[in-house]
Amino acid sequence: MVGKVFQNNSDFLDKIKEYTKELVEKNEIGYSQQDFEKSFLMQSSHTPFNIDAVQKFEYGRVEREYITDEYKGIYGLKVKNQEVLLTDIMYFLEGEKNVINVIESEFPELSISEIKAALRVMVIFMRSIECDEILGNE
Prior knowledge:
Blueprint: H1 11-26, H2 33-42, H3 48-55, E1 57-65, E2 71-79, H4 86-94, H5 97-106, H6 112-128, E3 131-134
Antiparallel strand pairs: 1-2, 2-3
Helix pairs in contact: 1-2, 2-3, 4-6
């Protein structure tokens, strides 16, 4: 019997975890767009579409104001030069009935509750690779 061979596809996730660890432990980030893009492309094909896509994103900081007049800096995957996190997009998609309908038509074997659960898991996953900086309590 031939043994199974596995390939780890976590280069991109490992790079993001490196950034969040630096933020928590050192209160700074040694970010390199080149390393960010390289780690993304290590686990995907180097098609023009993938190269173009990763060049439009970065791991960076977005500032949010909350009802309590508290500010929070959130480090995460975001659109370059924009205050839009990928989590923001996922939150939006999660609540859109049209998105659920499209998924349902592609995967008719899934129930609506399974589709909603899948979208929720994607949101939580995106949130899990973010790092919060609480401001206003200095």
